[in-house]
Design a protein that fits this description.
The protein has 474 residues and is of the alpha/beta class. The chain has 16 helices and 18 strands.
């Protein structure tokens, strides 16, 4: 994840652009003119749709994005290019075609329910002249991109002529092409590095019913062979991703809660492109895409996902390395802000945790039960020595932090060098501050910054001091 955070791939998206337009309102009566609802519109919103949602996901991940497409010379076309420019997307490879209508889908929403949609768009194939203009535009700079994505929504931009021209041009420059396909005929994507179809799309395209591992492998092999792919890939919804190169590999996903699968396919191809651009293996890439999809289906509507959200989601599944849970002051400040924005309850405690024992573990498990996120402040080696004496700590801070971070109850560990975590608590301002039961009736540092104080009794007979004494035979 750290490698991905330091990487800004250059990715070109080619495909069908559209505007998703929403009219929000309330409905309290039926029209006297006809038996239809009358919606009192109170708000209008617009977002990028189609290939634009792939672009949104790439921008959210931190990529430098360019787009190539064909739109109409109309008001919607101007609005669309302005929306792309506003998020920093390079639009110089978008061309206009006279007589073509830029896609705009308008939805009327009343009482959180869509009651009507009306579209303004052209769905016929773009003209050969438009294909030539795009290929001529890309022929001189295609090598500047790390990855090319073809995002096909079946609106006429990615014709067979266009798709094959881009794939062949990209291959001559050593640039991988990824495709989110449409329809049942995948032959127009022949020669791409990989496609990202779902199981239903693959069954239609291959005429193979996927019902077990054997039929899954058969479909993957047929897809790879007939489309001349570098890697064959199928998305399997809640079952994750399956790939085939020399053998079938499956990468299961863990989805904690599904609110909406809208746009999940756009998130998958964007995250695959992002990881492959950083030269990640297909195994790491599939795992990354599964995590991204796990985040986005927990949101409502066509959503995007950031690297920070993916990292936090991975941490919540306890599938990440322990050091991914060890944070600096600056890191934890941003993390707490994000969790608070999502209504999460933050719990904080601190200590030396020199030799971890069952008393520590039970204490931390109880602390975690008071909220959603448990942050543990950890005394530095110098701080422990000042508090416990020159023979302590037994274990250095790096080791203590790593072991703590591996515990299921602990979400994040933040080392601090002061004798008390006053400044750390002031910054975090936890909803719950937890201390040991021996603080009953005593002043607790940082209570003025916390929502409430909880005291937890220690396990009798369990302490680091007693563990050391036992080791020493005392």
């Amino acid at each position: 994840m750290k490698v991905l955070k330091n990487f800004k791939p250059r990715i070109l998206v080619v495909g069908d652009l559209m505007i998703d337009h929403y009219l929000w309102g309330s409905c309290e009566r039926i029209s006297p003119e006809a038996p239809v609802q009358v919606v009192d519109i109170s708000k209008e919103t617009t977002v990028l749709g189609g290939a634009g949602n792939v672009i949104n996901n790439l921008v959210a991940l931190g990529a430098s994005v360019s787009v190539s497409s064909v739109i109409g010379n109309d008001v919607n076309g101007s609005e669309l290019t302005n929306m792309l420019s506003a998020i920093g997307v390079d639009t110089k490879n978008i061309i206009t075609q006279e007589g073509r209508k830029t896609s705009k889908k308008s939805r009327v929403i009343a009482v959180s329910q869509q009651i009507l949609r009306y579209d303004k768009e052209s769905k016929d194939d773009i003209e050969s002249g438009s294909v030539k203009n795009i290929i001529d535009s890309l022929s001189s700079n295609i090598q500047e991109y790390d990855i090319v994505i073809l995002s096909d929504y079946g609106k006429g931009v990615l014709t067979t002529e266009m798709s094959q021209a881009i794939i062949q041009l990209s291959k001559t420059k050593g640039v991988k092409v990824l495709v989110d396909p449409k329809g049942s005929d995948f032959s127009k994507y022949k020669g791409a590095y990989l496609l990202t179809p779902n199981k239903k799309e693959v069954m239609l395209a291959t005429n193979i019913e996927i019902k077990d591992d054997k039929s899954l492998e058969k479909a993957l092999v047929k897809l790879k062979t007939e489309c001349d792919l570098g890697i064959s890939l199928i998305t399997l919804s809640e079952d994750g991703i399956a790939t085939y190169d020399e053998e079938v590999k499956r990468f299961p996903t863990v989805v904690k809660e599904v609110f909406d699968v809208t746009g999940a396919g756009d998130t998958v191809i964007a995250s695959i492109a992002f990881a492959l651009s950083a030269n990640k293996s297909i195994e790491d890439t599939a795992a990354f895409a599964n995590l991204a999809a796990g985040v986005v289906v927990g949101k409502i509507g066509s959503a995007t996902v950031t690297l920070d959200e993916i990292e936090e989601y991975e941490a919540s599944l306890h599938k990440s390395r322990s050091d991914a849970h060890i944070k600096s002051f600056e890191d934890i400040d941003a993390i707490v802000s994000r969790y608070r924005a999502n209504g999460k309850k933050v719990v904080f405690t601190n200590g030396c945790f020199d030799i971890l024992h069952v008393g520590h573990v039970k204490y931390l498990q109880i602390a975690k039960s008071f909220g959603d996120i448990l942050i543990v402040g950890l005394n530095s080696d110098e701080s422990v020595s000042r508090l416990k004496g020159p023979t302590r700590p037994v274990n250095i801070a790096e080791d203590r932090a790593y072991i703590l971070a591996a515990l299921e109850a602990v979400d994040f560990v933040v080392p601090f060098s002061e004798d008390t975590p006053h400044d750390l608590i002031k910054m975090i301002q936890p909803d719950v501050l937890v201390k040991g039961g021996d603080y009953e009736g005593k002043a607790v540092v940082g209570t003025e910054f916390a929502g409430e104080l909880k005291l937890v009794d220690f396990v009798d007979g369990k302490s680091t001091t007693k563990t050391i004494q036992k080791i020493q035979g005392k």
